[in-house]
Structure formats: structure tokens, C-alpha cells
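Researcher: First entry.
Model:
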Amino acid sequence: MVQVLKEDAVERWAEFSFSYEPRHERLTVNWVRVVKPDGTVLSDKPGMAQDADVPAPMNDPVYVEQKVRRMSLANVRPGTLVDYSYTVEELKPFRAGDFFAPGASIRGRWCGDPG
């Protein structure tokens, strides 16, 4: 959850995106809503949601299978809260039993465990 405090932040939070690689990940946007500080829901879903390819940067034009889900929200203004939740599931790791999850348990050990 993010509280928009200044007019400069309205554009940043009225349009935002999540990236994922559909070849081995599944993106689920659990919810996205705009709420007043008193709890009144101003919008309970994005006005627009669209999946698109990520354009290759001009200085390193390498194709990637990454996608981006862009969303537009109505009623974002200073003082409102943008409440969102999303999940990215790893469906097919590159190596069996190998999942990238910072701070999570991998094969029964915590990341960074020296033993």
C-alpha cells in the first residue's frame, strides 16, 4: 500500500506495471484499488489492464520473453492510498529444485546460510 502525498506522485501511481516471464512464470494481480484514508474505496479495479512485450533497449537490442502488465487507475490524487497485491509464481525453474526467492528457503536452507 502506498499513500500518494504530492501531485508529482500522481502520475507515477495512476499508471504502473508488473513484469514477468510467461515462459516460466505466472503473474496474478490479486487486487488493485484506490482508497481514501478513511477507508472509502474510490476505485476497486484498474480502468485499463494490458499485457505487452517489453521493448529491447536500443543500446543492447536482445530479445527477451519478458512481458509487462500495465494498469491505469482512476481517482489517484494527493492523499489517496493505492492498495495493490500481486503474486508471481515460478512454474518451471531453469534447474530442477532451484527457485530464485531472496530471503526464502531453498532446498531446506535459508539463503545466505553458510552451512
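Researcher: Second entry.
Model:
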Amino acid sequence: MSLAACARNFVTKRRQVKFISQKTEIEIGKKAKEQIVKEYGIYKDLDWQIYLDQVGQRVAKASDRPELQYDFTIVDSDLLNAFAVPGGFVFVTRGILSEIKDEAELAIVLGHEITHIAAWHGLEMLQKAGLLGTLTALGAIGGAALGAGEAAIALAQAANIYENLYLLGYGRANELQADQYGIVYAARAGYDPEAALTFFQRLDKIEQEETAGQHISPYWQDHPPTQERLKRAAKWIAQVEQLQKQPSLTYNRDKYLAMAARLPHGESAERGVIAGRKYTNVPFGVTVEVPEGWKMDTSRAQSLVSFSGPVPEVRGLLQRFPLPHETGVQEFAKQVARKWGVQEAATRDVDYPAGHGLLWQYGGDYQRFRTLLLVRGNAGYALMCQMNTDVYLQYLVDCEKIMRSLQIQ
């Protein structure tokens, strides 16, 4: 018996197969938020959180999925980005809030992310990752008890897909659809849709500057070219304004700029920098490179740098652990095992360009891990590659290249 059901997409109004219930969608989103907050950190300013929630809820109520409970979070990063995960969870960075110049532009950005949720774009990622069938087979849908046994494992695996949304995006077609309906929702909420043009014009300038400097943020890699978005936005704004009986003119520029003035700017030098496919951290004397087709990101709070492969199932990170006293690599490995919850791993001594260390290999039917552990001075380093088992052999060489590129002075 098939557990999948047909449902009408909130945004497109077309009927499509929906494999999981809204309850399961929300549970996945909650778990994803836990992981995202742990990895990236949140910006703790109560006034900002209240303000963001007020604007977000106003736009959400004007969306095509207003009955869902939406949750808005500020990620503590200078990286310019915003993203959403299923179940109503929206994230914006300090970086993008600093580039926004009024409340109407904020409404456009939030409307874009709300569209991803309303149109089930996140569920498409689960389908591509082969997890919708797993969730269905385990009964983690409909009225099944969530969080128990194998269903909990499936939910955790599903939530893990969204941890790397900084680097993945939802694909060109879905991003353009989110632009279109983000404009519609902001206008319905009473904001001037023309704000989309001013925001995209500013993004276009930033994109050109970053392209010239050969430092492309994940935001540009995830989204269609800004020039294309500008042209399409102008058409969509004209359509919205034709349908409006009373034009939307809300901007609240002064209030927004007063809030933006509270935001801290700049990242610590200890965060390091990315230039092309190379990460450099001068204070710690660390460099590492990724192969062609891979992406890097420094926004995670608990790692120096994270990276993702050409497919979502392949990713990794480099983490640094300060050591309070002289520690050997064997003892350091035990500490990492406790922190990461590694129960058992095949371990061997290795010599890499970064020096002598230990190599872990562990995992199961679903995922495989390969981790290089090193101790240098008063710090330990763990460089981990994580791959779905079915693509492990395909990307093993790439993982080895990353480990051999690591240098610690």
C-alpha cells in the first residue's frame, strides 16, 4: 500500500505527490534548526529578534501558506545570505541585514524564503537525496509516532540535508519562483514591491565587486545571475501593481536603519579567509584547498572552514580544538571521539604533508566518514570528510586531495 498522497501545492495550486505530512515536515525543520544553530551560532539581540519576527510574521500571514507557524532566526555571520528549511524555519545572516536598507527590502528577502517553504522546495531536496522513500517506508508520516526508533534516524538524516543550505541553494527555477512570490507576498503585506529593485541593484554591485576580486560568496553560487533577477523582478512588480487596488508604499526606512546601526561589522581574523578554492588562516598558520567543483564556507561557529562537494551528499569540515596542556594524538583522538559521539573507527597512523597523525574511517550503510587527526603545539585539528555510502568511492580521491593539501605552520 502506498503511503504517499496527492496534495495541492500552496503556491502553484497544482496537485502533486506529497510523501510526508506537515507534522513530519515541522519535525524535520526543528531538527535542522538545532543543527544549524549549533554549527553557525545565532546573533543574540532580543530587540532585533522581535523586530525580525514582526516583519516576518506580517509577510507570512500574506503568503499562500499563512496557517503555518513561522520561526525567524538571525545567524551570527557577516556572510551575505538567507535560507529556509521545511516546516516554517527562516534564517538570515547579520551580513544580509547590513546590506538591506529599509523594512520593505527586508520583507522582500523574507517573502523569498517563505516561498521556499510554502512551495515545498525543501521536500524536493529530500527526494533528490533519496530520503523521501526512507521516511515513507519507516512510517514517519501521517499519524505515526515521531522521534521513535528508526523513524528518528530517518528524521535526523533528513534534517542533516539542510545543514549545508549556505552552500547548496534550491536550484535556479525554484530561486526565481521564490523571487516572484516574495514580491507578491511583500506587496500583499503592504510593502512597496519596488524595494525588490533597489535591493537587487545593490546585490548586483556587490556581485560585480566580488567577481572582480575573485572571491565569490555562496549566495551568488546558489542564486541566478542578479541581472536576470532584476529584469524578471521589474516584470513581476508591474504585474503586482496592476492588480493592486491601493498601492503598497510602506518602507519604514528610518526605523530599519536605526536597527541596522546596532549590528556589529567584520569577522575576527581567526575566522580566516577564502580565496578561490583555498582557505587561509594566518593567526593559526593553516591553509587547505578543495578540488575543482567544491565550495568552501567560513560561517560555521564550530569549525574553521567547512566544504561541500559537487553533490549534496558529500561535505566536510576542518575543526580546531585548543588543548589546555601537552596532549598526544592518541589522547586527542579520544577527546574528539567523545565530542563527536564516534563509537568505533578503524584507526591507523599516517604521515601527511601537515605531519604525523591518525586516520579514522568509520560509518555504516548510509554514510561513511574519513577523518584526519593531528596535534600541533597547543591545538588539535580534525579534518573530516562525510559522504553517503553510495558515492563514497567516487569522491574518496577528492577527500584524499583535501587532506594532503592541509598545511599547519
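Model: Note on the second entry: Confidence is low (pLDDT under 50) at residues 138-148.
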